[in-house]
């Protein structure tokens, strides 16, 4: 961040950081630098009040390997309310687009409403001033407001749909499946298991770039 001795003006639509001196400027520079490379630090920068726990640092390390391409397939199995969706389904797409703004993401959940709820969080993240400061080339197109489909200014695309939905014509460099079963009853149902697995093989898996 260049420093000319004066307090920088806030840009329209950007948060006004209280930078009063060289030390403030240096701290803000380091915060942004870390946020561009670490999922935990990206979440710290884009989510107010976020305090990571030990498991979130583990998420950050393994999901960082997903972004770099070292890890091709990953399954996360943790108890509810441990931040799986927050990190793997919301913040991961933001940081992934930051590194690859022209690539495509497909995100699926047990039904379209749930997938749309997650998609809305991703949309709000990509539209946030904090994300745009870090990755201006990965910000949303001005009229990309739908919660289940959106595009970056660099040509990347995000699509959200329920398990079983059609995905013809869409590709994914990153495929996310968050909670393919709504509850334990569905998870224990052999018929539902077969339906989900059939959809995965015939539809979701074939979308990979």
Describe the structure.
This protein has 209 residues and is an alpha/beta fold. It has eight helices and four strands, in the order ααααβααβββαα. Strands 2-3-1-4 form a four-stranded mixed beta sheet. α1 packs across α2. The radius of gyration is 18 Å and the shape is globular. The protein starts with 21 loop residues before the first helix and ends in a 5-residue tail after the last helix.
Helix and strand arrangement:
Elements (H helix, E strand, L loop, with lengths): L21 H14 L3 H8 L7 H15 L15 H16 L4 E6 L2 H16 L1 H6 L14 E3 L5 E6 L11 E4 L6 H5 L1 H15 L5
Helix content range: 40-55%
- Whole-angstrom Rg: 18 Å
**Uncertain stretches of 5 or more adjacent residues:** 1-14
Described by its quaternary structure, the protein is single chain
What order do the strands of the largest sheet run in, or round the barrel if closed? 2-3-1-4
Distance between the termini: 36 Å
Shape: globular
Number of strand elements: 4
Tell me the strand percentage band.
5-15%
Mean pLDDT: 89
Question: Could you give a short account of the major beta sheet?
Answer: 4 strands, mixed
Query: What order do the helices and strands follow?
Result: HHHHEHHEEEHH
- Counted by DSSP, the helix tally is 8
Helix and strand content put the structural class at alpha/beta
């Amino acid at each position: 961040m260049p420093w000319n001795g004066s307090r920088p003006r806030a840009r329209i639509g950007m948060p006004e950081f209280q930078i009063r001196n060289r030390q403030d400027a240096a701290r803000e520079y380091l915060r942004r630098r870390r946020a561009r490379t670490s999922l935990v630090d990206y979440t710290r920068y884009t989510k107010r009040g976020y305090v990571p726990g030990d498991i979130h640092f583990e998420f950050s390390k393994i999901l960082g390997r997903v972004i770099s391409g070292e890890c091709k397939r990953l399954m996360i199995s943790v108890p509810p309310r441990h931040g799986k969706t927050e990190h793997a389904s919301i913040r991961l797409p933001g940081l992934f687009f930051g590194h690859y703004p022209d690539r495509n993401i497909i995100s699926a959940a047990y039904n379209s409403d749930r997938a749309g709820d997650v998609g809305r969080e991703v949309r709000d993240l990509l539209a946030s001033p904090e994300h745009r400061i870090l990755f201006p080339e990965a910000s949303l197109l001005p009229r990309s407001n739908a919660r289940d489909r959106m595009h970056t200014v660099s040509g990347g695309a995000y699509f959200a749909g329920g398990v079983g939905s059609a995905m013809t014509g869409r590709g994914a460099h990153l495929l996310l499946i968050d909670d393919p079963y709504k509850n334990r009853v569905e998870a224990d149902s052999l018929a539902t298991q077969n339906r989900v697995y059939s959809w995965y093989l015939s539809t979701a898996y074939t979308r990979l770039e």
